[in-house]
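[agent] plan:
  1. take the single chain provided in the ticket
  2. run structure prediction with default settings
  3. attach structure tokens to the ticket
  4. add a short note for the reviewer (M.T.)
[agent] executing step 1
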Amino acid sequence: MAVKTYSRRKYFLAVLVAVSALTGGLGTAAPAAAQPGAVITTPGGGVERSPKAGSPLTNLAEYPKLTPGQLAARVAEDRGKAARGPSVEQAVTELTSTETLDDGRVAVSTYTLAPGADPAKVADSLRRQGKSDVRLVRHGPAPSSGVGTLGSNDCAYGSARTVTCPNSWWSNQTRSNPVVLFNDHSSAAWPVTNAVYKWNQTPNIDSWYTWNNCNPSNVHCVDVRSADFGETGWVGLTTHYYIPPNYGRILDAVVDMNDWYAPTTFTRNAAVTHELGHVLGLGHNQWSGDVMYEYVATREDIGGENPALLAQVYSIDR
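[agent] step 2 finished; step 3 output follows
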């Protein structure tokens, strides 16, 4: 594995040094609207009109990477909000199931809970459905992480956590940054385009969007789907695929959004933003005011510590 240029490592150090001195934030630009009105065929053989169909790849220059100062401002803003409350940093639950496939791959699914869902009851329901190796893991609050040098193998930064520890990552595939191309099959209710371009602001990894059309040339295609899965207790589900014993390198991933839950105490923008964060390698954030918190809520921006942690995970080429 190759260490990225010194300027990138210096970039992240600049963020860390600036955090303690900054209190401002940065707004998130909204992506360009998808082209409306195309007719698509549904899995059942019918047709529907989707505002997403025919959406072009958007010029990512319109959504530049966060600078060290901007990233540090976001981190400082979040830490200020967390200190003022009422949201608190607390232990979080990771609910997962693991299956070994016939081809030797291992599929690890991470579930994002609906508001008010009991993790233990959701876990029992998954076991009754035949899901294998269902686990509930409680993580205590991480030690405060302030100014300092992080490594590419670190699993936490402040309240942000990686989805696995040791962490999981996408390979570069000869590109300067790994590219995750989110291949959207979801209904118009799920604003995947908006979520993708928010995450594309993260340094050292690129997030692209396409509708129902994936060219796998040196990119990682990740399907994003939606369906009515019923009253499962989860709103979103992200599955990563690995080949043991190399559990760090992500081979593939898929996202499923559950249409059953009406967004009364959460937003679907927040839910899909949360799941795409899992895809890139983030676990559940320990701050209840964060978009990556274990229960989906209403916060829709990606925060500061989340992209800061990802930027460090992808600070080397693999």
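[agent] step 4 note for reviewer: Helices lie at 6-19, 68-84, 119-128, 192-199, 268-280, 305-313.
[agent] ticket updated
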